[in-house]
Design brief:
By secondary structure, the protein is an alpha/beta fold. Helix 2 runs parallel beside helix 6 and helix 4 packs parallel to helix 5. This is Hydrolase.
Length: about 180
């Protein structure tokens, strides 16, 4: 489990590192995932590489008992990005209503316009937003890397399965330090 290479046009995609999601209980401390996300974002920005900040503002229209419904169901600051991410004016902001960041958004177009060929995906929740986005990135033809110390999930078993069984099939896995090291 190590990251061996990053394409010259790699983008960072940070999933749901927002106040409402990071306040939920998770298998690994959300504050540590946010800190690693901030470290990755700073390293990508220093190299002039795209940083994508994804937030979720609702849920898909299918029947589910897992999420609140309706605009008033979430607290007013639910979708606010955590300030530690140091949002920059050049960051790409994506708002989604499904688990994955590609479906129903212009993420693929944003990345293709910038010539991106690889994505590093991190955030919360490992087996939902991160995995869905990583799967879609793979299906869209991007090389995929997941720094497994920069993801967490409310369900420890779902987190483990995604990290051990799913992500290695989609691309490379490793650590935040490995990704930052490859950025030079």
């Amino acid at each position: 489990m190590s990251v061996t290479t990053l394409d010259p046009t790699t983008a960072l995609i940070l999933i749901d590192l927002q106040k409402g999601i990071t306040a939920l209980p998770t298998a690994h401390p959300a504050d540590e995932v946010v800190a690693r996300g901030a470290e990755l974002a700073a390293a990508f920005r220093a190299k002039g590489l795209p940083v994508v900040l994804v937030t979720v503002t609702g849920s898909a229209p299918g029947r589910t008992e897992a999420a609140p419904r309706g605009g008033g169901a979430y607290p007013p600051d639910f979708a606010e990005l955590r300030p530690e991410l140091g949002r920059h004016e050049d960051d790409i902001l994506i708002t989604k209503r499904t688990w994955g960041a590609f479906h129903g958004t212009d993420l693929d177009g944003q990345l293709r316009r910038r010539g991106v060929t690889q994505v590093v995906v991190a955030g919360i929740a490992t087996a939902m937003g991160v995995e869905s986005t990583a799967r879609a990135a793979h299906e869209h033809g991007y090389h995929v890397t997941v720094p497994v110390d920069a993801v967490t999930d409310p369900d420890p078993e779902a987190h483990r399965v995604a990290v051990e069984r799913i992500f290695p099939r989609l691309g490379e896995t490793g650590t935040t330090a490995e990704v930052v090291g490859l950025l030079g």
